Amino acid sequence: MSLLDMIQNSGQQMLPDHYKSIPVQEMETRVRKIKESLGSKVFIPGHHYQKDEVIQFADVTGDSLQLAQVSAKNSKAEYIVFCGVHFMAETADILTGDGQKVILPDMRAGCSMADMANIDQTERGWEEMQQAVGDTIIPLTYVNSTAAIKSFVGKNGGATVTSSNAKKMLEWAFTQKERILFLPDQHLGRNTAYDLGIPLDQMAVWDPILERFEYDGDLDKIRVILWKGHCSVHENFTIGNVEDIRTSDPEVNIIVHPECSREVVALSDYAGSTKYIIEKISNAEPGTKWAVGTEMNLVNRLTKQHSDKKVFSLNPQMCPCLTMNRIDLPHLLWTMETIEKGDVLNQIKVDSEISKWAKVALERMLERV
Q: Which alpha helices (H) appear in 74-155, and where do they start and end?
């Protein structure tokens, strides 16, 4: 089921028009006042890729799993207003208590990568893969996936991974089975497997649309099966971007997220998770120059925070993630005002059976990192 289908079937409401005409300063004042009056009843986690207009009200900023874990530890909060995207709010709902309500201010805030692996495609593909290479595969899924995919992985002996711990989790997975199915981002899977010494010719791409392998060799030689998915933001960083930087200013350090293609990662100076990128630039010497291959809201924030360094986007034409930008000040104000009135809109609820197995997949990872 697509995000649009979920919105239509759930009867979720859209932002009333009058919020679009409220002056920014008035919105900020109203959000701040409500947040203060509600106190510990409301907790606002904000993902690193969110707009500054939203991040200014976040109680904590971080990556998706970190925010879900922090939310779960905050047992006092009745309402978790998750400023991120749909799969992140799902993870928060899985990990938080039954008495807590996870709210996504705008239900259109999805993730194109997560949507590239739906459960029907995955179950059909799994059967085909099993027929091709037997019961030799363990599934792993990036946390940037739907709850249904996490649940599928949990049921089939696998675990979730993050960009920070993917290497460790692949090492674990190879102690369990001969082959790994990596969902839904082929680039993180390929970059991580390559770093572990697995040759590219032992990795095959699974096309869920055509339901077949993109691989010319002997299937018995495959060690990693990469789901044909990607991040629409990170895939827009190109070899040409890297070459332009190298030509224009060889002193620039190029740092990228491992959701970028293998070719871009190979040509960069550094590659790592969002946390890695933030810490690397924070700890860098004053006067150093950094071309960053990740989402623009974060790049712009790093530029402001580190005025003693030159920080800019690796791709000068890059735009912020469209779905991350769905959460804005009007949606946050609307959410806070409905909570103040005792109403709950856009609540994220994961089915109990899906939640049970998704939590298994998450816990298998958390036990090993």
A: 86-95, 112-115, 119-133, 147-155
